Amino acid sequence: MSRQTRTRQDLSLLLGLALALSLTACGQTAVEESSFSAEESVEAVTSAEVSAETEPETDPADAAGDSSTQTAEESSTEPEPVNLDPDPDTAYEYTLCFAGDVNLAEGQYTAAALDSYGVSGCVSETLRSYMTGADIMCLNNEFTYSSRGTPLEGKTYTYRASPSRVSALEELGVDVAVLANNHIYDYGEEALLDTLDTLDGAGIARIGAGKNLEEASAVYYAQLENCTVAYIAASRVEWSAQTKPATNDSPGTFYTAYDTDLLYQRVQEAQEQADFVVVYMHWGIEGTADLEEYQTEVGDALVDAGADLVIGDHPHQLQGVRYYNGVPIFYSLGNYWFSRKEEYTMLVNVTLAGDKNGVQEVSCQIVPARQQASATVTWLESADSQRAMYDYLAGLPGSNITIDDGGIVAEKGA
């Protein structure tokens, strides 16, 4: 090292020391003259920390100029207020509950059980408490309400119930009925139109089918006090020839097997208007837990378009649960109250917590249940049976979740 270099370093050290002493003296004076209380000091520090994470309001080029001429008053402008906690006047917590396939058609075991035991004897009290206690209850209504029409020729299973059966949905607290499925057109156009009228008369919103494509693809906005939840339903199954797609001037389902553009458009529209967007899809292959490639592709695309939750059905059994970009996709909720096949089923209870700034936290809970040979559905009461069901669900193809002993779902590794 040259002598000249050492001399420059010595001078730099001396200048630095002098500057430090000067700043210390100024700091002591500022502390002595400050009138902040301890609480105000903490608030100021917190505000400064938050402000440091946001974009600077001053252009960096302007900040690079000489600031020595600024007065103390000019350089200590009060920061914008920062909302660190939920606004107590607008804070909310709402629950959305979802069930899978329900079939109460005449001649089915479920209808016979309903006639014999009533709703309270067919659906466990604990399950009913979740359903009726939710702010919005939604399920897949996989049959028609009508006394008209004829069964579709060549279709193995056709389902039609008396319009009076809608009282069972009312008793279960159903607010939204999904009609985007492969049985809503089982008895033709007349029965479909009767189904629309029956649900309208019961005050139950319907999604996924309608008098024309505009109605079938329409977004239903559920307006809670401080939160708007959007619901969209669409079908993509192998029964397109028998489950008529709605057109611009004829009734049917919102069918998306060959063109998903309108579906994504509806999701984008909903995302702009609502605080939380739910998409209910009828997809997959019956009788298998394996996912079709398009289920993962479309599910991800729905999230990319703005969906906050994706619920699926049609396979008539549970399928896996996967998080994509932080959004849960339940590929199939399976049969809820559909037949007398013994199998796992569940409710999905979703809690939305937020305030005037929107939804801040989403929690998904599995309510474990089993469809019984008696064509009833019962809550799994014991801890061991619940744990076995949670482990089964988490182990299904496509799942990337953990489920704690309270049924709370989380993304694995998150």
Question: Can you walk through the features of this model?
Answer:
Strand 16 (343-355) and strand 17 form a beta hairpin. By secondary structure, the protein is of the alpha/beta class. The strands form 5 sheets. Strands 1, 2, 5, 6, 15, 16, 17 and 18 form an 8-stranded mixed β-sheet that branches. The longest helix has 31 residues, at 3-33. Mean pLDDT is 84; it is low at 1-84. The chain has helices at 3-33, 38-52, 60-63, 109-122, 125-133, 166-171, 188-201, 213-216, 261-273, 293-305, 383-394; strands at residues 92-102, 136-141, 144-145, 160-161, 176-178, 205-207, 209-210, 220-223, 228-235, 252-253, 276-282, 309-313, 321-324, 327-330, 335-337, 343-355, 358-371, 377-379, 401-403, 409-411.
Tally of DSSP helical segments: 11
Rounded to an integer in angstroms, the radius of gyration calculated over CA atoms is 30 Å
Q: How many β-strands, per DSSP?
A: 20
Q: What is the rounded distance between the termini?
A: 53 Å
- The biggest beta sheet, please? 8 strands, mixed
From the helix content, strand content and strand pairing, which structural class follows?
alpha/beta
**Global geometry:** globular
Average pLDDT confidence is: 84
